[in-house]
């Protein structure tokens, strides 16, 4: 496919416009640079010829606003800066500064009624603009590398809309992102809380060859405020303070002695149901535990496999969505084939009263929970858990294994690693059947799991997703960063090397 930015020639009729624009750019240059440096300005720059703001006064010299003046006033402009560029062969917008710095086609969160300004910098030389149809916003074209423009508009309605480049072919080539208008004024203070997301490398080492034994497992149920997303917090219910709960690793034939202690600061009763345990309730009948109390339950691990465990205190889906799920691996005799790195990843969905992206502390919405209308989808408990906080890392040529499960409580995952193929898949987490080979996407139901093995052959950044890809827009994305030399024999830009 030819990239659209090879079509650089301007329409003949646009020549005069270009000259005029050049003059505007020159005259606007001084305060354009102020605008980009200061991130705060009262009026749009003179290059915002197509600004949606009726109040724009292009000829006037604007007085730069004080940096701090816009933090709490909802009528002050909320400023985003985007730079055009190329990422993985696609034309994109990169976020510049703030929360969106470096993100490809970052999602922009605005609040209803706010004045919003988007600065656009031309990062690579083709002609671009930025358009949001629903807000009637259209910037002027930025022509030539380093040129910039801005558009100012009022976030007049709530909803999720596209921003995109209207230059022919650019939207299709990748220049499109989302802007979300949410109700209510912007929260004055940034909400911060503990990182509840479990690092995917936080799991026990392989067991190897040993005879069956008694294994003690200590679970502590903790209710705590955690970071759900940037500037967004949530009251999680957890096993051991993280989501997912700790990965338990035993071998077939082991006797598992579970001590469940419910923190004295808890409000709720909690319990645990091990899918690996045989007997009514998977142990939950013996482990209903009041705040400050401890219960003990023992079971034999008789079936090899990767199994989910979760709290099973009514309302069970409420305890699960709040974070109460984890996995237990019951290794077959002799263990699994050796790999260089292992990772522990779980998917869940969350049902907040406010829409996805709202800032501040979020409440769970029971009506949305029982009608299966989630606002968030997350890997390891939080938005950004596996992209910003704890991306997966490996070296080119290494073999990796992902223990993947779905806490849910309701949504099946179509687990996929963009740019890779799973060499071995233990379907449904079963370890007594031979694995499937050469698999692109694995269906994992709530309360289910899978084990995938693969060799990462080429360096680069790979992306973990549920291939129900709309869920990326609700937080469900992870990164696998593979370091090392790029093997161009496997993939390279351009025609085949001869
Ligand atoms: Cu619970």
Describe the structure.
With 498 residues, the chain is mostly beta strands. Helix content is 9%, strand content 37%. The chain contains five helices and 29 strands. The longest helix has 24 residues, at 15-38. The relative contact order is 0.10. Copper (II) ion is lined by residues 237, 268, 270, 311, 313, 319, 324.
Name the features.
5-stranded mixed sheet, binds copper (II) ion, 5 helices, 6-stranded mixed sheet, 498 residues, mainly beta
Overall geometry comes to globular
Contiguous helical run count: 5
First-last Cα distance = 20 Å
Strand fraction? 35-45%
Percent of residues in helical segments? under 10%
Task: Please give the order of strands in the largest beta sheet.
Answer: 20-18-22-27-24-25
**Sheet having the most strands:** 6 strands, mixed
Judged by helices, strands and strand pairing, the structural class is mainly beta
The average pLDDT score comes to 85
> Are any ligands bound, and if so which?
copper (II) ion
Number of strands: 29
Q: What is the CA-atom radius of gyration, in angstroms?
A: 26 Å
Stretches with pLDDT under 50, minimum 5 residues = 1-76
